[in-house]
Amino acid sequence: MAVYVGEKFGTVKCSIWPYGYAAHLFADSVPELHRFASSIGLKRQWFQNHRRLPHYDVTAPKRGLAIQKGAIEVDRKTEVTFYRERR
Q1: Which of 56, 80, 75 has the alpha carbon at shortest distance from 66?
Q2: Is 27 within 8 Å of 79 (Cβ atoms)?
């Protein structure tokens, strides 16, 4: 099983998301995703339980930390393929 982190998106800072951009952190299984997210300091309440792609949104520093801890970087096309296969 693996954990993946997508490409950056959303380059505009705003009052509700002042971090500039985010990326999706997702995994082959939700329990694995929660374990990994906890290991990089994400709170469970930030989990987004979308039907097709359960994920966490991560900021640039957390994205970098996820990669350092072994998350596999994927491009947007791979991310879309991932959730299409899980329908």
Answers
A1: 56
A2: no
Cα–Cα distance between 12 and 41 in angstroms, integer? 24
Return the structure tokens found at 27: 């995994």
Residues across the chain: 87
pLDDT tens digits along 50-78: 888 899 989 888 999 999 999 999 988 88
Every domain of the chain and the residues it spans: 3-85
Q: Report residue 23 as tokens.
A: 């990326």
pTM of the model: 0.83
SS3 75: coil
Scan for tokens 């990089």, then name that residue: 40
Residues 6+ apart with CB under 8 A from 38: 44
Encoded amino acid at 60, one letter: A
Location of structure tokens 């999706």: 24
What pLDDT, on the 0 to 100 scale, is given for residue 7?
A: 83
